[in-house]
Structures are given as structure tokens and as C-alpha cells.
């Protein structure tokens, strides 16, 4: 029996619903969101989320709960096994990542290191 390949990330219902809302409001035709990491912040890396108009060469494509998320190839090793959530409450609004690869975060929570 073959083992199923692990998705780079999984989405919560709230994240999938927010992605659908964002795609419906997108200024141009989009096929999903692209998630990556950028070198910035006091811990070294931060998550970067943008509209995806097309699939780029070597993107990891995750289709989950009816939405499509592309993972930039240079970000896969930092995101593998992560869960993407969306929170909207009186203290915070935005996408949040539960990432088993993180070794620490900065005090404000905007950046991380592996």
C-alpha cells in the first residue's frame, strides 16, 4: 500500500472561505493565492501572500476545500506540514500559520526563523 504524499500546507475552513472572498474581490482574473516567505523582520523570515494570476514553473499546487494555493518553490521547505488559518476577532485579523518548522518568532509575531 502506497503512502499518500503530504501536502505542503493544509487549509482550515476559515482560510478557504477567506480565499474565496478575496478571489471574488480581486481586481483582475486570478486562479488562487501564492504563498511564499521573504527575508524580513527581526527573526529573519515572514509569510508573503499574493494573488496568483498563473501557475509559475515549479510551484507546488495545493487544492484544498475548493480553493487553489500555489507555494513558491523556494518556500516549500519552510512551509511543509503547515496549516493556514484565517482569524477575524477583536485582537487580530488575517491569515495565521501553524508551522511545525518554526523554531521561534519575534515578539510581535510578524516574523519567524527555522
**Which residue ranges are poorly predicted, with pLDDT under 50 across at least 5 consecutive positions?**
none
Query: Class in CATH?
Result: Mainly Beta
Helix content: 10-25%
- Morphology: globular
Radius of gyration: 14 Å
Q: What would you call the quaternary organization?
A: single chain
Global mean pLDDT: 83
> How are the strands ordered across the major sheet?
3-2-5-4
Indicate the CATH architecture: Sandwich
Looking at CATH, the homologous superfamily is HesB-like domain
Q: Helix-strand pattern, N to C?
A: EHEEEEHEEEE
Characterise the protein shown here.
The relative contact order is 0.25. The chain is 15% helix and 40% strand. A 4-stranded mixed beta sheet has the order 3-2-5-4. Strands 1-6-7 form a 3-stranded mixed beta sheet. A two-stranded antiparallel ribbon has the order 8-9. The chain starts with 8 loop residues before the first strand and ends with a strand. It is built from 2 helices and 9 strands. The model has no long low-confidence stretch (mean pLDDT 83). It has a single domain, classed as Hypothetical Protein Aq_1857, Chain: A (Sandwich). It is globular. The protein is mainly β and 114 residues long. The longest helix has 13 residues, at 13-25.
Kindly list the characteristics that best describe this protein.
mainly beta; 2 helices; Hypothetical Protein Aq_1857, Chain: A; three-stranded mixed beta sheet; single chain; 114 residues
Amino acid at each position: 500500500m502506497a503512502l499518500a504524499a503530504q501536502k505542503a500546507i493544509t487549509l482550515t475552513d476559515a482560510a478557504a472561505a477567506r480565499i474565496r472572498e478575496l478571489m471574488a474581490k480581486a481586481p483582475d482574473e486570478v486562479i488562487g493565492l501564492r504563498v511564499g516567505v521573504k527575508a524580513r523582520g527581526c527573526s529573519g523570515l515572514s509569510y508573503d501572500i499574493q494573488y496568483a494570476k498563473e501557475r509559475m514553473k515549479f510551484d507546488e499546487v495545493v487544492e484544498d476545500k475548493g480553493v487553489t494555493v500555489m507555494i513558491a518553490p523556494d518556500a516549500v521547505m519552510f512551509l511543509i506540514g503547515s496549516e493556514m488559518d484565517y482569524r477575524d476577532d477583536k485582537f487580530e485579523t488575517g491569515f495565521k500559520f501553524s508551522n511545525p518548522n518554526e523554531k521561534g518568532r519575534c515578539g510581535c509575531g510578524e516574523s519567524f526563523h527555522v
